[in-house]
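We store chain and fold; thus.
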Amino acid sequence: MARITDVARRAGVSPSTVSYALSGKRPISAETRRRVEEAARELGYRPQPVPPAHGAPNVLAVAAPLRPGVHLPALMRLTQSVVTAARGYDHDVLLLTGEEGLSRSAVPAPARVLLVVDVGLHDPRLPVLRSLGRPAVLIGLPAERPGLPCVDLDYRAAGEVCVHHLAALGHRAVALLGPPPEVYVRETASARRLVEGFTAAADRHRMASSVHPAECSGAPALVDRLLGAHPAPTAVIVQNDALVVPLLTALRQRGRRIPEDMSVLAVGTDVPETVSAVTVPSAELGTLGVELLLRERTGPPVPRTTLLPPRLTERGSTGRA
């Protein structure tokens, strides 16, 4: 079944523009409306109406706890896309930022649907979520399917794509520089699944590999540790937006050229335009999460798992070993 994000991609506009063009709720230029309607017709897309529940306000709650190690700009970009998509369906958004965000007392009655982000492999919020009895969608993929729709970037495939790219360039030793240690301790699914893909692909290519949880303030010491390793990696993959710039600075201060002496790849939301990357599609994830959530409430069953394929964009920061 075609999704609103598919129509947006075909028409070359944002998902919210698709919603407004098809609903007529905001002025859209005739040319843009024509492209959207043509793309929707070609893909067979039909928007699902979302009626108010017995006259109550339409409120979508987003459980996005502000935990240690969470990169706030990436979280805000995701929630911004949720707000934009929700307005296209006449929904307001309630942001729940506390750890207790899914308790019965913390989810107000008007919040009839729930979007849950920063999902862990064994997320303790899932039993509570099921007990609430409200339509819900997870942005993240837990270890065991909870019977709820899940949408995310395919992080395991992202790790594999990065390693395959570096192996094709002749690299034989590679390091993954991840988020801070607490992110791994609470088993955040995106971090753990990227490690799985990274490690499996490195083993298949018989590459020496290592994983390093990292704070951005520790970039100089981390670079010294990498350069002193045996074998020293000739390429790094960074899954930590806040670390990328300090890492590049520390490498250059030690006389390492990029990519001649060290290839750098990133997996993230806010990656410098000079760094080759698998970009996390926050806008698409947020929009798709909202669409699945509201279809789950009013329409036919939606897919239980939707993983977006990773796309690696080369920008000159990787080269031959």
User: Anything to note?
Assistant: Confidence is low (pLDDT under 50) at residues 51-56. Residues 72-88 form the longest helix (17 residues).
